[in-house]
Specification:
Layout: E1 4-9, H1 14-23, E2 27-32, H2 38-47, E3 56-60, H3 77-88, H4 91-94, E4 96-100, H5 114-127, E5 140-143, H6 151-160, H7 165-169, H8 192-202, H9 210-230, H10 236-252
Length: 270
Amino acid sequence: MNKVTKVLLFSGGSDSVLINYLYKPDYLVYINMHTRYSEEEIKKIKNSKFGNDPRLRIIDFPFLGQYEREDAIIPLRNLYLPMIICNYFDVDNYGDLDICLGATAGDRVLDKSPKFAEDTSALLTYLYSPQHWIPEGRKIRINIDYKKYTKTEMLKLYKAKGGDINELMHESFSCYDPIDGQECWCRNGICKPCFRKYIAYKLNGAYFDPSIDVSVCEAIKAEILPQIEAGTYGRAEEEKEIKEVLKLYEKEHPENIGKILYKNNNHRHQ
C-alpha cells in the first residue's frame, strides 16, 4: 500500500488559509496560472508567514491564464490543476494523493461539485491503474470535504479549536480589486472575495474598522440586497448570513439608517 500525501491547492485567500489549519496538509501548492491576480497573490503569500513555510510550493503554469474570463472564471481550471499536482508529486516519492480543492458551501461552479470530485478521482485513479510504467498503481482522491460548510461555519470550527480569528483574518488576502496592495473592502463596488470574507469574520466576532463596516455593508445594500429581495440571488445560506450582517450593521451604525452612502466607481461586478 502506498503512503498518502495530502496536498492543498493554496491561494493565500481566506478559504485556503482557514482550510490549512483544519485539513493539515503535507504541502501547500500555489499554481501560478498568470491571471490578472497572480502577481499580487504570490507577493502576498511570500510576504506572509507562509512565505517561509517548508510545505509551500509555487508551480509555474502560464497556459491557463490566457483563458481567464472577465469574471475571473477559468473554465475547467479544477480539472487541469489536479493533473499538474499528480505530475509534480510523483508516485515514487509521494505515493497516493489526497488533493484538497478548498471548496466551500458557497461554491456553485461544477468543477467543485461532489460529482466532479467523484468522477475526477475515478478517472485519475483509472489512469494510474497498474500497468507497465507503474506496476504498483496509484490512488488519487479529489477532496472537497469542506464543501458542506459555509465560510462562517468553518470559522466556528477554527474558533472551537482555540484559533484566533482576528489574527487569522490578517494572514489571508482575498480581493479582486486591491487598492495600494491592500484588500479593497468594496470601496470600488462589490468585490466578491472581500464581502464574503467580511460576512464570515463579522458573524464570528472579528473586529473591523468602522470605515470597512460602512464600505462593505453599503455596497451589499446597493448591489446584493435588491437581488435577494427579488429572489434572483440564488444562494440561500449566504442570503441568511447577509441579512444577519446587515442587522448587525444597523445596530452598530444607527446613524446610517436611511442614508445612501454607496458610490460605485468600478461597475465591474454588477
